[in-house]
Every structure is written in C-alpha cells, then in structure tokens.
Automatic annotation (TrEMBL):
<dbReference type="InterPro" id="IPR051531">
    <property type="entry name" value="N-acetyltransferase"/>
</dbReference>
<dbReference type="Pfam" id="PF13302">
    <property type="entry name" value="Acetyltransf_3"/>
</dbReference>
<protein>
    <recommendedName>
        <fullName>N-acetyltransferase domain-containing protein</fullName>
    </recommendedName>
</protein>
<dbReference type="InterPro" id="IPR000182">
    <property type="entry name" value="GNAT_dom"/>
</dbReference>
<feature type="domain" description="N-acetyltransferase">
    <location>
        <begin position="6"/>
        <end position="163"/>
    </location>
</feature>
<dbReference type="InterPro" id="IPR016181">
    <property type="entry name" value="Acyl_CoA_acyltransferase"/>
</dbReference>
Length: 165
C-alpha cells in the first residue's frame, strides 16, 4: 500500500529486524518501552499471524523516495469493553515528529478499515498525557469518548464511526 509519501508494508517475521530498529528509537521507546530482538521477533510473528488470520495488522512505513524507515502503524483487534474491536495506532521515529506522518499512516489505516474491511467503527487510544497522538486522532476525525484503564494506566479513548468517515 502507498500513500503520498510512504510505502506501507505488512509486518511479518521477515521484518523483525526493522521492527527492532524502529523500537530502539528514543521517541518510540519512551511510549512502548525498550524491546529486545526476541520481543521484536515475537511481535513481528504475531502481527504476521494477524494479517493471515484477520486481514488486518500493522505496517512498517518507509519513505517512498528515500526508503528511510519512518515508523509503523495500522490496525489490530483489541478487547475493549468486553468486545473484540478494531483499533488504529501508529508510532513515528522522533526525528520525523511534526511532519504529518502519523496522520498519513492513520488515514491509510482508516481507509483500509472502512473501505477494505467494511468496519462499522474504529477505536484509538493513547496515554492521557500523549497530547501529540491525541491531536492526530482529532485531526483524523475521532471523537473523545472517555478515559479507560489499560494495564492499570489511564488512557484517552477515541472512536470514529464509518458514517462519520
């Protein structure tokens, strides 16, 4: 899949080394913790299984012209409020913050969710104090719903319906 500036490649085991490199970025590690190579291999394999079983998962995002690794993003199914729901997320290397890449990745994820998967809604959430991600959610048209707890921590929970898209 391509956007105006990015090439989006579904993550699978073959991209574990790049996923590891991405999560070594200080700006990403700040939100997701430090990953080992084994963590990246396990996550890449799990994401690949999600693509195969559910037709949804995360992509690695590379710049279309330079090939530089920009970030990752896309969809996954999460258990929220006792139901399995489609969630959109992204992570962009700190050097690229403020350039619209998260919004571009998010827009591609919404297009895929609504136009390819036929989703009725998409959810997104982030730590309450992650104002940059919250601003991306709002630019994409998500509406803040409430605070939820994930792993005991407060998260801002957003929703976007297919009708509003």
């Amino acid at each position: 899949m391509h956007t105006a500036r990015l090439r989006l490649t579904p993550i699978g085991p073959h991209l574990a080394d790049e996923l590891y490199r991405l999560h070594a970025d200080p700006g990403i590690a700040r939100w997701y913790g430090t990953w080992t190579r084994a963590d990246a291999q396990a996550r890449a394999a799990a994401i690949g299984r999600g693509w195969a079983a559910e037709g949804a998962g995360k992509w690695l995002a590379h710049h279309r012209e330079s090939g530089e690794l920009i970030g990752r993003g896309g969809l996954s199914y999460q258990d929220v409020d006792g139901a399995r729901r489609l969630e959109l997320g992204w992570a962009v290397r700190e050097v690229h913050w403020g350039r619209g890449y998260a919004t571009e990745i998010g827009r591609a994820g919404l297009e895929y969710a609504f136009e390819t998967l036929g989703a009725g809604e998409v959810l997104s959430y982030t730590e309450v104090h992650n104002l940059r991600s919250r601003a991306v959610m709002e630019r994409l048209g998500f509406t803040y719903r409430r605070e939820i707890r994930r792993g005991g921590e407060p998260f801002a929970f957003y929703r976007l319906s297919a009708r509003a898209w």
